[in-house]
Amino acid sequence: MNKQKYWLPVLGIFVALIGCITINTPIKAADTIHENYVQKIKAKKELVMGTSPDFPPYEFVKNIHGKSTVVGLDVEVGQEIASDLGVKLVVERMDFDSLLVALETGKVDMVISGMNNTPQRAKSVSFSKNYYQSGQDLLIRQADIHRYHNYRSLSNRTIGAQTGSIQYSLVKQQAKKAKLKGMDKDNDLILALQTHKIDALAVDTATAKAFIQNTNGLIRIPSGFKTSSAGSAVAFPKGANSLVQVANQSITKIRKNDLINKVYLPKVSKYMTNHKSKKDRQKANSMWAYKDFFLAGIGYTLMISALSVCLGLLLGIFLSLMRLSKNSWAKKIAGAYIEFVRGTPLMVQLLFIYFGLGIVVNIPALLSGIIAVSLNSAAYVAEVIRSGINSINVGQKEAARSLGMSRQLTMRYVIFPQAIQNIWPALGNEFISLIKESSIVSVIGVKDLIYQSRLVQADTYRGVMPLVITMILYFIITFSLSRSMKYFERKMGHSND
């Protein structure tokens, strides 16, 4: 076998990827000073704010009249800046560790997510003045109140922190005798703390107060960390000086009038404790009250899966025919594509399409998810179809050609119909897997079933039940599809008897 069969096509793919990434360098050089950035915002009449809504009281999701709404201290700050600019505030939700990437690639205009202004972050983005200063605490279980007093008490124990946060860096740098456990969501870390997966959780003081107010069995203690952070600030694209100046004026007004303590935090507290009796809280936090969230998630999941199945199947057939063709270049290109896609994680492909290609063209999150899942599925479908075609006895092809049928007609009317019966179970498994794998789109803010379950977790402070409901819903979807595939499989088997 020629070892260099795929060398040139694979090299071409890598060159294209590097080319897309390096496009960002001249863009940054040309835009070191965005003197007209404010004018651009006013021209489109909206200011897009990126945030990770799992960080109460800074930002969290609330079920308001059956609609998931991001509320919190940071949203109020963002609204103040947008109001001073005379534009509408649009909130984009995504994971915390994706926020700065979204900012650098133009997906959002600013990031407000309880983000601390650190020298490392300031190398890639421009920060406003700090708008709020809070301390650092550790959340522990109430049963451990006499065991742990600060991070020094947690030697050889596990401390959790949100990936990409300042707390993650503080634990890593100062609590060197402790084990560090990072997760994307604070809600997952709270669940890990409650189920003894971690022994403490490092969070902002305001966030710690919010969680213990709404979660039974937890208590906060001083962290003992030394930090030089100036506090939470608004992040903007590097060099967006005109927009930073506008934000600083808004923050100066906020601090002068003490709006955070007098207006914003009291308003946020009402969202967090708007049910007086225990019965009211239980009713508001029941899973039935969030049925619209789960239904919306099912709708997005089914839509993404259906479109990805269709596109993946069409592209997979095309790729399999390329690999079976006599054209050497078609074989190499299809082979290189299949090997590259199967050799890289779907999450990396998704992030590259959404963020990497976003440097050249702004692809919406939903479309990015459909494209990524479709392209990934096509590589696996192509191999399933190719193996099915190769499984047909060569005598079938020879008999058809001896009757005067062309190669195309032979494939269409003789080989492919028989191959379908052989590959149907494998295709069914791929389609079922695709429904489950489509959940990866939640990391870029697509409102699928996983994303909606995260919202329910954040709003109810209940970690396990939303996951149970989500598992049941996924099982119903995949089981129904599996039964349907088996029905058609039996029908095809009966038609050949």
Automatic annotation (TrEMBL):
It holds the Pfam family SBP_bac_3. It is found in: Cell membrane. InterPro entries: AA_ABC_transptr_permease_3TM, ArtM/GltK/GlnP/TcyL/YhdX-like, MetI-like, MetI-like_sf, SBP_3_CS, Solute-binding_3/MltF_N. SUPFAM superfamilies: MetI-like (SSF161098), Periplasmic binding protein-like II (SSF53850). Keywords: Amino-acid transport, Cell membrane, Membrane, Signal, Transmembrane, Transmembrane helix, Transport. Residues 298-482 form the ABC transmembrane type-1 domain. The chain crosses the membrane at residues 293-322, 351-373, 463-482. It comes from the Bacteria. PROSITE patterns: ABC_TM1, PROKAR_LIPOPROTEIN, SBP_BACTERIAL_3. It is a multi-pass membrane protein. Its main location: membrane. Belongs to the bacterial solute-binding protein 3 family. PANTHER family: GLUTAMINE TRANSPORT SYSTEM PERMEASE PROTEIN GLNP, MEMBRANE COMPONENT OF AMINO ACID ABC TRANSPORTER. This is ABC transporter substrate-binding protein/permease. It comes from Bombilactobacillus thymidiniphilus.
